[in-house]
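Hey everyone, long-time lurker, first post.

I ran two proteins through the pipeline my lab uses and got sequence/structure pairs for each. Pasting them in order. The first:
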Amino acid sequence: MAIFLNKDSKVIVQGMTGATGMKHTRLMLGDGTNIVGGVNPRKAGTSVDFDGTEVPVFGTVAEAMEKTGANVSVLFVPPAFSKAAVVEAIDAEIPLAVVITEGIAVHDSAAFWAYAKAKGNKTRIIGPNCPGLITPGQSNAGIIPGDITKPGKIGLVSKSGTLTYQMMYELRDIGFTSAVGIGGDPVIGTTHIDALEAFEADPDTELIVMIGEIGGDAEERAADFIKANVTKPVVGYVAGFTAPEGKTMGHAGAIVSGSSGTAQAKKEALEAAGVKVGKTPTETAKLARAILAG
């Protein structure tokens, strides 16, 4: 099984003809992703040859959906144009928009998040500033390396891109149903809670790994959700135990004020909800192994 993405997903790439879009479209195709088109108004009507696979370019998301039946868009659009690109995807009512772009203004992210909500949340947004999501052996929408794991029984949701990759590699022998990188910006679409809810409902996911990081209260809210709604075992890791207070660390959302948003506070909230929390990614992987081993 999978959450949000599977072998039947038909994927388009907004910004496919740019350097980054071209590179990752080629990699996604190599992972077996069913990429049915790209979107670039200036290159509509052309196509791009990816090692023998011809991918057509459309002028709009709506046209791409009409011609191909696409239901997922991956966005590699520069920050200044990302808001317009996401709004276009929302207007076309594509079910899933995966916003990879880093450096989008928080005001723009808040605007397209609110716009999606006002339109009835017909478009699920993942990101921005995220690695996307992968269902190993079926489909890869984003920049997660497709060769570091295999299909299995763990569900992974993570704020951090690189920690997503590390955890997938650490547990590569067990494998994953899906791994979702939700991004670390202050305003994101899909949250830990959304992914936890989907993994709880997925019959093939036996254990959930949740990776958070300092800043905000997303992990504390996720802990409350787990306590009330999740019956499957959850293992957690919170990045940033050594971060100094009052400094923005890495991601724009990772700022700590007093005890609010600290790794320790998040760890305590998760443990109070019955989540086993590792102090390092490797320790977290060991906790997951121990639970699955019974």
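...and the second, right after it:
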Amino acid sequence: MLAERLVPCIGFVAPSGTGKTTLLRALVPLLQARGLRLGYLKHAHHGFDLDTPGKDSHQLRAAGVEQVLIASDERWALLSEGMLEPTLDALLPRFDAQRIDLVLAEGFRRSHYPKIEVHRATSGAEFLYPDDPDIIAIVADSPFYDLPLPVLPLDQPAQIADYLLAQLATQSPQFASPRTELVTYYQRLRRYGYNDAESGNASVRVGESFLITPSGAAADDLTVDELILCPLDGELPPGVSFDAQLHQLTYQQQPQAGAILHSHGADSIAASLRGADFVPLDFEGRHYFSSVPVLPVPANMDRYLEQIPTQVAATLATHPILMIASHGVYAWGNNLRQAYKWTCALELSAKIVRLVTHHR
């Protein structure tokens, strides 16, 4: 069983008064416009109180209650008393990973997580990055510093937002949002010819749930908010891909599966029409999968929905990839990158078989 992934987090660090909060206020609407759902984590150096003196909750806390949860139809807040200084690792799991794509943190300079240093020449402060290997970039009021890290202009928040989005798409899994990764890989299938504008589907496992592309997903303009969260066991929500049950059953029967991709590569489909399991001719293909099962396609959609999800899940329990005759490829991996690797490797092997057959 894969562990539930934390919400990605990046911090902004600087001496007090440098302008971290001002910068974050400018970044939030820009990141939201780029499709990210945001959280905010602030390290307070002094005592603070979100409650109101004189209210029932405040009086009960004064009387000795350890925790108070205040809730309304708009928001809720949990206040805990007598805690040691909380760490970043203790606080991040309190964010709802299904609602947030990125947490912007302010402070927590001693914690090990990706950070951006905010620096103003007029402050006279020394740079922090030489003593903090977790700092990945500098936001500065002068772009002319000769530094070993990327330098982003403080007065260009749009450029900083673009940098953050690029980090989400390309950095290691600790900094990648499952929603962003899923959209990225689904769009790669389209970009490199493995799917047309609205074909195929993709999912990624998140704890005891999985995210999947919606029915009729258009890869060219799919957004993270269009992805649908489904339970690993139970009723599927409306609007999901018609293959959602297939994904659900596969996750149940193959606990190592962290992601599933369904694609329609032309050479793979052509190879699936040969009437037998596919056997690669190239070295890499034989190394990855000595043969690839090919399942027959049912005569109509009703029979497809009745038979294929169970058959595919049972086959993927023992194989990383399979074909359905004339209908493309299903591949699972420990993560999206591995599922994409199997998909690409099979398409290349199928192309090599076609080229060899053509030249004989």
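Reply from user beta_strand_b:
Welcome! Quick read of the second one: Confidence is low (pLDDT under 50) at residues 1-5. The chain has ten helices and 15 strands.
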